[in-house]
Amino acid sequence: MQLPVEIIDLITSFVEHPLEDDRYTLCPVDKYNPNSVHDLSSLRLVNAIFSYCATPRLFRIVHATYSAHDSEKGCRPLSRLRGISRSYCAPFVRHVEVGLDGPWKSTPGYEAYIQSLQVLLPDCLGRLPNLAVLNFHGPSYSHSHADPLFSWEKISCLTNRAVQTLGDTPLPKLRDLTLALPLTASFRSFLAVPDREQEAIHNVLKQLEHLRVEICDNTGSGGKRYMRTPLSEAKSVLPNREHASHLFNCIELAGSLTSLEIRSTDVLDLDTLSLSNQDHLQILSLCNVSISSDCLISLLGQCTDTISRIAFNRVELKSGTWQDILCRISQLPSLQYFSIVSSGYSKTGESCDLSLGFSLMMDASRDIETCNPLDYNALGDVQRRVNRNRAAGGLAAMGPCEYRRTEMRSLEDALKRKYT
């Protein structure tokens, strides 16, 4: 007896994405999963119908980053991408990840990978007619020190591959872009190109729905909160704060976003970032930035009716209070996820008197680091609002371990007790 194709398709879908509890995830992320790839490969061998259902899923995500493991084993991930792009499986590819998976190593394999990117990447991506997601990863930096040989010239070589790809390759269906590069200065290359390439890059950014930008050089005193590492050569010459405008210029060109993630290592001042016309934004994630309450409230005001998921990690308020920000967030009608970690007040801004004035130990980190107890009452209002919205949408509530402020008095009650 032959199973119906619909049942086989459901089985294949479950093998690809086992059911998981995603309550504590900012958004469901479609990541390359080696276990799923192995299981789908086995499923293809069952019979022709399983092969028919599994093959498009097996080649939907192509992971072509380079790591120390690839260097040791002599693997050539770009060769696999090249082979798929020239095969009948090319139309199945929706998502490609390239760049470095881990820190840079001064070995011939890493050098060869960078050179191969220049030759192969634009041609390979141009052969993928349904490519919707492109993740470009710069190197991560170890806890001890960045490789001193990963100079600005190497960074530029890596960045130029991304620039060349976006400037020379037609990507009409690209909607999701991740750019994880070492420095804010790396983003200068996206705009310092000939007019024809610049127009193509502008068009790609304007058509995006999801944009994630990350600065990944975490060396120096501003890069890590708990474990300081010597400053890299490139970052000493090109400090992130002084070149943040290059990053911001790229973000500002993406005017149709439903999802925006900004992750930095040094604290970046977002008050100089112009985020207008973001009335479709559904997901906002900020990490290691500073911002005034007016700017943050203005951004949230643009997307009041659409935003449903917010994550703040090490966000410093320069002015105003978290009490005011969280009061505004607690009124968002569609909010179903909110996370805040180790966020507080700038030590130099107008609200510096509310700053703790020191960094908590790693095992003592809080949701909000503040001298204003009303901030916690406002956070409780937000957490209760999220759980009410989730219940109305048939979703599981956030647990008490993550939402520890739900039992606190409301901000309104706390204010009454304070002033009566």
From TrEMBL:
Q: Which InterPro entries match?
A: LRR_dom_sf (IPR032675)
By what name is this protein known?
A: F-box domain-containing protein
Which organism was this protein described from? Answer: Aspergillus wentii DTO 134E9
